[in-house]
């Protein structure tokens, strides 16, 4: 059951932009992050919810899409995300935040997948510009951004081939291919 | 559905040590991490699976348990984890690993919860000692450790009270209490 949801939760970069994601839906997703584990139970992550055309635009222009696609700058108008969650680290609570952003994002995206939505997580963010766009107080650092919407593309997982190349790629039909390493290649066997 | 699983997935520190976790179960859990997102699709995390008394002992002695419990050094013999997953960063693949350990651990622990197991994630690890115990090659760095087993304690979530104290605590019945911030306290509202 959880395996199916995890397998279905792929990274999507094109969306049915006219399908809205409600404020209530975003709050339900943040509540999943709230219920998840955080290092030392510090709960130092905060969240900006965006699902209006205006704030979505402010966020979109600070993101760099799909590093391995050299000739694609991101989704065109009409295929852009309907919503975003900006994950902030509240530095007035703690110095660091361990792995909390990974856990929070996985909970949020699994919840989104269950609702028929999908998303994409960003590290390539113009953080200075985004902090200005959102008028963030200085004690907030931007940990990551999640784009959300109803996916408008097909993503398939396949095995890494002999070349060992893990770069995702898009075929002529627009299908996004993601090479994954084999299970045995991820396990390090300890000597007795 | 995913909400119930996330709510049930609490941090457990005492286990029915005689309930074994099979190698096959651990492999199924690692496969959930394998199917999960990784930054740039780099897949630089590797995993050590431990479920024998001997390797479990080697790992146990390098862990520091429950930072907020000043008078408790961890579970006694008989209540210790039946298994561990040591999450490694393979530095021959990439310099960093983004939020990958958080995502991987959340997938693993949600899978464990579904199977009636539970666990605890560690950052307080004697990494030098553990690398020696496991004879890790130099290109591996220890990202985190997950202890796993059949939980032998009750964990309850409650609201953070007026003091704002987020420290978890154990009552006289041995019930572990985890104060969580309210949803509205996690949401930062952006000015228009």
Supply the key terms.
homodimer, 192 residues, alpha+beta, NADH Oxidase, putative fmn-dependent nitroreductase like fold, 2 domains, four-stranded antiparallel beta sheet, three-stranded mixed beta sheet
Largest sheet of chain A: 4 strands, antiparallel
Q: Which structural class best describes the helix and strand composition of chain A?
A: alpha+beta
CATH classification, class level of the largest domain in chain A: Alpha Beta
Distance between the termini of chain A: 35 Å
CATH topology of the largest domain in chain A: NADH Oxidase
Q: For the largest sheet of chain A, list the strands in their spatial order.
A: 1-2-4-3
- Morphology call of chain A: globular
Supply the CATH superfamily name of the largest domain in chain A. Answer: NADH Oxidase
Unreliable residue stretches of chain A = none
> Could you tell me which chain pair has the largest interface and how many residues each side has?
A-B, 72 and 72 residues
Helix content of chain A: 25-40%
Strand content of chain A: 15-25%
According to DSSP, the number of beta strands of chain A is 7
CATH architecture of the largest domain in chain A: 3-Layer(aba) Sandwich
């Amino acid at each position: 059951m959880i395996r199916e949801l995890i397998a279905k939760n792929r990274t999507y970069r094109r969306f049915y932009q006219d399908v809205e994601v409600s404020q209530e839906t975003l709050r339900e997703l943040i509540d999943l992050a709230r219920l998840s584990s955080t290092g030392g139970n510090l709960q130092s992550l905060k969240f900006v919810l965006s699902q209006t055309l205006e704030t979505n635009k402010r966020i979109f222009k600070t993101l760099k899409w799909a590093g391995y696609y050299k000739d694609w700058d991101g989704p065109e108008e009409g295929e852009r995300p309907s919503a975003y969650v900006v994950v902030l680290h509240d530095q007035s609570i703690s110095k660091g935040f361990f792995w909390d952003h990974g856990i929070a994002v996985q909970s949020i995206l699994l919840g989104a997948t269950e609702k028929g939505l999908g998303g994409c997580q960003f590290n390539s963010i113009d953080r200075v510009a985004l902090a200005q766009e959102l008028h963030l107080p200085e004690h907030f650092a931007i940990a990551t951004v999640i784009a959300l919407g109803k996916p408008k593309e097909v993503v398939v997982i396949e095995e890494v081939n002999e070349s060992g190349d893990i770069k995702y790629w898009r075929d002529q039909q627009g299908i996004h291919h993601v090479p994954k390493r084999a299970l045995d290649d991820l396990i390090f066997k300890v000597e007795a």
